[in-house]
UniProtKB/TrEMBL annotation:
PANTHER family: DIMETHYLADENOSINE TRANSFERASE, DIMETHYLADENOSINE TRANSFERASE-RELATED. GO terms for molecular function: 16S rRNA (adenine(1518)-N(6)/adenine(1519)-N(6))-dimethyltransferase activity. It is found in: Cytoplasm. HAMAP family: 16SrRNA_methyltr_A. This is Ribosomal RNA small subunit methyltransferase A.
Amino acid sequence: MSDEPRTHVQTVKSLLQKHAFHTKKQFGQNFLIDDRILTQIVAAAAVDKDTVVLEVGPGAGALTAHFAKQAAQVLAVEKDTSLKPVLDDVLAPYGNVHLHFADCLEIDLLELVKPYLSPGASLVFAANLPYYVTTPILFQVLEAGLPLARAVVMVQKEVADRMVASPGGKEYGVLSVGIQYRAKAKRLFTVPPSAFLPQPGVDSAVVLLDCTAPADVTVEDESLFFRVVRAAFSTRRKTLLNALANSFPIAKADCRDWITSAGIRPEARAETLGIGEFANLARQYPR
Ligand code: SAM
């Protein structure tokens, strides 16, 4: 196989022209035109005839069509209703694709998916996510109570780095903890701007989330856990003691006792703490 990207830019351009469709920046519309990348994403998702795929943002349907060939069902949620003629056209050959036009941030994804989940089916989330709203959509999906086996998402490269970052590095932060609390995250490959129409100004990367392997921690109060994580990272240059004392209505001396009782040095910085240590902090929170 040649190393040249197998783009089908003309096919996508003619399709959009046929339906007088113009891509909209405000919806983060950068459509994938590189067949090799599409194939790699579908391979990473490891779908088979027992898999139901939930896709957010099918766009012009390139990824959707690839999944339709391999999965049992594909459920695609698209916000831009003006894409309907394009999607109806491209997806006409596939009887197993179900289009739902809505803002995925405003719907109950579990209710939407339930009717398609027959016993024995596994659920995979896949998306080339719109960059302007990547993390809200990711968390909307991860927190919807869906029985997800895994997720394969294309995001801006810097976001991918933050999703998979380990403690100690400058990319490690609230996003890393939020993602890795729920899934084992692995960055698979980077994707250049030339793989899209129109081309974005940044590199992208594909991340695989194994949702069957969340962090091995016990968190009784998730909302407190995430309050602690956000507070700890709120002022990165400060010590944990100062960051937490700034954010919680607790006297500094009590804050020091709290951190020590969680087995952590009050002078530590948030970016050095593992998820287990954040969980300890939430557990030892003085009530
Ligand atoms: N999947 C297509 C591809 O790879 O070529 C399109 C990806 S494009 C980066 C993102 C898509 O998400 C667009 O079709 C856009 O209209 C849609 N979108 C943006 N915000 C959305 C939202 N809140 N809910 C559902 N779809 C959304």
